[in-house]
Amino acid sequence: MSDDAFPYTVTPEVWDRPLSAAMQRQADTRPFSRPEENPLFTNFKYTPLQGFDYSDGDGTVSRRDPSKIIYENGQYYVWYTKRDTETPCLGMEGAKDATDTVASADWDLGEVWYATSKDGFVWEEQGVAVPRPPKPQVGFRAVCTPDILKWEGRFYLYYQAFTEPSGLRGDYCPIAVSHSDSPDGPWTPVDAEVIPMGKEGEWDQYAVHGPCMLVRGGKIYCYYKSAFNRPGCVWITMGLAISDDPLKPFEKHPLNPVLNSGHEVTLFPWKSGVAAMVLRDGPEHYTIQYAEDGVNFEIASIVEFGPNAAKFYTPDAFTDTGDGQGVTWGFGHFINAGTPDKQYSVLTRFDCDLRREPGDPAFKTTRVFHKPEFYYAQPLTPEQRKQREQDAVGG
Amino acid sequence: MSTEAFPYTVTPDTRNRELSAAMKRSFYHYPNERPEDNPLFTNFKYTPLQGFDYSDGDGTTTRRDPSKILFENGKYYVWYTKRDTETPCLGMKGAKEATDTVASADWDLAEVWYATSDDGFTWEEQGVAVPRPPKPQVGFRSVCTPDILKWKDRFYLYYQAFTEPSGLRGDYCPIAVSHSDSPDGPWTAEEGVIIPTGKEGEWDQFAVHGPCMLVHDEKIYCYYKSAFNRPDRLWVAMGLAISDDPLKPFEKHPLNPVLSSGHEVAMFPFKKGVAALLIQDGNEHYTMQYAEDWVNFDIASIIELGPTAAKFFDPDAFADSGDGPGVTWGLCHFVNAGGPGREHSILARFDCDLRRDENDPVFKTTKYLHKPEFYFSHPLPEEKRKERAAAKPE
Q: For chains A and B, what is the number of CB pairs under 8 angstroms?
C-alpha cells in the first residue's frame, strides 16, 4: 500500500495507486471522470409548446406519447397519441364502463395525429395520420404511442393497436404498422400485427408497447417495452425485435429483456452502439445507458428530472452511419396536466446536451438547486406524520 | 443460447438462464431485484420545522449543516451552524470586504447552536453550544458544520474551525473538537486541531469538512469531505479518519478518498457495514452506497430528490452493534431559502425508509409524478432558445 496520500491534482498516474472501490470505478470511467465532462450526462430544460389546443383543460383532449421527431420537406414532423372524446376518460379502473365513445385510459379511443414546425417550438397540428380502423381490425379500439421509421425512401408508423379498452384485463396490445411515401400521408395500414405479443408464459405475453425504431447494421431495430411478473412486484423492462423488412416479421432477441428498468423507450444511435434513457421503474431508473452491441447495456450516467415518454429529434436514427452523433432535444409528455376527474396529458419540449462534442456547460452541471417549496410539495401523509410523532416518543 | 423466451413470472431459476448485461445486474448486482424491495432504496418526504425564527428571512439569521440527531434525557438533540449577524452575508466572492461583524459565506462568523424536541417535528432552540474561541485559537473566525459523538458516556462535538473568512483563498479549515459530560453542556473546547488538513500536494491539503462520526470495531470513524484538483475540473470526495480516542490524533485511511461523489457526509451503520447517501457532485450522485468493510463502497440504489447536507437520527451510530438496523428520518438544509441580498439557509426535516428489516411501501415507489410547473421552472435560457429555434438541419 502506498505511503503517500491521494494527491490534490489528478494526473494519469493517480490511477496506478491502490484505490478504494469507489475511486476504482472512477478510474474505469476514464476519460470522462466527472459528469461535467461526460457526453452522456445532461441536465434537462423544459419549454411549453405553442400551437396545441387542449379544450381549456377540460379533460376531453389529450396528447401524449410523441414519436421521434424527423426533419423532412424543410420542417419538423412529430406524431403522437391524440384522444378527443366528448367526456374525460374514466381511467383504467373504469374500463368496464367504457363505451364506443367513452374512454377508459387516457390513451383509449386514441388515434395517431401529427404536427409540423419550422423551429421546433411553435407547432401546427395537421390532422390525423392513422385513424382507428373498422372493427374487427387490429387497433379498432385505439391506435396510439407511435414511432416513425424512414426506410428506403418510404415512411412507416409503428404503434400500439388495441382491440379492447385498456384496463379491462390489463393494457394488452401488439404493434401494428401503416406506411406512406410521404410524411404527410396518406397512410396505408397493414391489417395485421407486425410485432405480436409473446407466447403464453413469456415475459411479453400481454403487451408490446412503445416502439422505438432505429436502423442499425442494415436492419430495422424496434426496441419496445413490456411489463411482467404480475401479481408479484411488477417488472417493466425493454426488449428488442429485429427485421430486415419493415412489413415482414420482426425477430425478438434471445437475450430480451435488454434493459432492467425504465418506463419510456427512448434510444438513439451513439458512436458505434445505441444509447438509452431509462427514467422510471426499476433499480436503474434515472440513468443513461450505452450498449456498443445494441443489446448489453451499461450505465453511462445518472440524471435527474428527465422527461417522461421522451423521444428525440434524431437526425441519424435511420442513416445507419455506425457513428451516432447524439441528440439535443425532443418531446416528452406530462400525464398529470389535469385534475383527478379531468385527466389529460400534454406534450412538452425538452432540451438537453447528449452530443459527442464537448458539452455546453449550461446542460452539464450537478449544482442544480430546487426551491424548498418543491421539496415540501413531497410531504408525509397525515397518517405517516401521526405515526412518526407517536413513534418519536421514547426515541 | 436458450431458445425459450424470458418468462412472464420471475422464479428463483430465472437468474440461471442466459441474460443481457442489464438483466444480469438486476439479479446479481443489487441487494434486491426491484427497488420496491430494496432496503437501501427510499423516497424522501419533507416537513418544514416548527420553532426556528429566521428574522423574517432578511438574511441575517441562518441555520444549516445539522449534526446527527441524538435521543438523550427523553428528548431529541440536534446541533447545527447558526449565523446571526447584523447584515446578510456577502457571499464567498465578497470575502475581502468581510469584517469582524460582516460575514463572507453563509457559514462565516458562525457558531454551533443546538435545539431539542419531544417529537422530532417541533423544536426549541436552546442556545449556543460552541461559541467562537478568542483569537488566535483555531475556530476564532467561525465554528460550524458540527457532528456529535457519544463515547464512553461523554459527548464530543466535532466541527469545522476557521481562522479566515471563507472565500479569501478558498474554504480552508481543519476539524476541532469540544467535549462535555452532558448534551446540554457546558462544552470544553480542546485547543488546537483534532483532524488537520493534508500535507501540501495531498487531496485534502486545504480542507477537512463535514465530519460524520460513527463507532465501529471499538474505534471512532470520522468520514469527512474535501475538494481537490482545482483549478481543473473540481472533484468533491469523501475520506475516512480513524482513532481509538476521541481527543487523540485520527489516522487517515490509506485508500482515501473512499467515495468519488457526493456533497454531504451522511453515513449510518447498516448490517455489518456502513451505508452512505450521495446527493450532489460526481458521477455517482443520487445514489445510496454500501461498504461492508466501511471503506470500499458499492452502489446499492439510485434515488431522487434526496436531502442536502443530511444527517440522520441514528440510534445505532455509537452502539458498535455490528448489525446496523438503518434509519428513517433526519434533518437537512436548504441553502436557497432567501432571494438575492438576503441569502440564508433553513433547516428542514426529511423522512425516509432505509430500514433493514421493515419496508413501508409509501417510501418505496418509483411511480410518483412531479407537476408540469416544476419541470417548466427549469426553462431553457432565452439565448439558447433563440439559438436552437434558428438551427436548421443539413
A: 330
